[in-house]
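quick one: protoporphyrin IX containing FE bound model?
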Amino acid sequence: MKFLIVLALIGAAAAAPLSADQANLVKGAWDKVKHSEVDILAAIFSAHPDIQAKFPKFAGKELSAIKGSADFALHATRIVSFISEVISLAGNPSTAPAIETLVTELANNHKNRGVTKDQFTEFRNSLTDYVSHHASWGDNVASAWNQAFDNIFQTVFSHL
Ligand code: HEM
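yep, here:
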């Protein structure tokens, strides 16, 4: 019995890598928004001012005043490019270790900045909300997207 419980726990914790078809659904949705870097970061900051407050260049400033700046575009592009890179590697078992490495680095960088699990979850929720309103979003896309972020966040949370 104990053995079965242990197995169930391991099963629940194990990542479920995306199939090629699932990865294509995620890529299709992401392709619709990945050039809206500034809008995406602005939506996240607007929904969660505590995330904006962590950025030394943007803390304490009005979103409307920083949204058009070069610094804002630069940061937004860094964040969105990271997500583009991870999504481009999804759906292929041979690139799974590369995703793991990238996401582990991300988690460690952010841990050093004092970013919390709750803030990562806020970020995820806002990002998902943005994509779901700007791309075709059926149950199949939602399920592939959620599986991708469950996998990413499992790694992030194991390092925070
Ligand atoms: C999946 C979620 C996230 C992704 C993909 C992401 C991505 C990135 C990337 C690519 C960078 C630039 C490279 C680096 O310095 O590490 C960065 C920097 C940063 N991120 Fe994130 N991030 C995420 C969540 C968050 C959250 C939730 C916060 C705050 C609550 C945050 C705060 C920061 C800060 C403060 C910087 C440094 C900015 C600076 O250089 O002045 N990030 N992030």
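DSSP finds nine helices and no strands in the chain.
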